[in-house]
Amino acid sequence: MHEMGIAMEIIDIAISSIPDNVKNACVEKINLKVGKLAAIVPDSLRFCFDIVSKDTPLAGAKLNIEEIPVVARCKECDFKWTINTPVFKCKKCKSGLIDIVSGRELDIISIEVVEE
């Protein structure tokens, strides 16, 4: 389960993002964008996050995860489409020469910090 390692890294990043001048800071929410090709199970990531965030300024924080679909672009005809099946060829011209435009993301979009 690589979600545990990802949760630990999110916590490290969030803690290092808390401004030094905010006393008794705690993180209320972390907003993520996770691509479908990142092979992350959102519920597993939330579960791991809840476990490893105990006794940190992130204890009780909400992990908001926006799943990003896999979008491809054909190198032959420049057609763009969302991939919903494991068939990686152009829907328009059937070429196998494609680029993945989105779907691999694992981005922290924002961290909401409050002062207690």
UniProtKB/TrEMBL annotation:
PANTHER family: HYDROGENASE MATURATION FACTOR HYPA (PTHR34535:SF3). GO terms for biological process: protein maturation. NCBIfam families: hypA. Ni(2+) binds at residue 2. Belongs to the HypA/HybF family. GO terms for molecular function: nickel cation binding; zinc ion binding. Zn(2+) binds at residues 74, 77, 90, 93. Involved in the maturation of [NiFe] hydrogenases. Required for nickel insertion into the metal center of the hydrogenase. This is Hydrogenase maturation factor HypA. Keywords: Metal-binding, Nickel, Zinc. InterPro entries: Hydgase_Ni_incorp_HypA/HybF_CS, HypA/HybF.
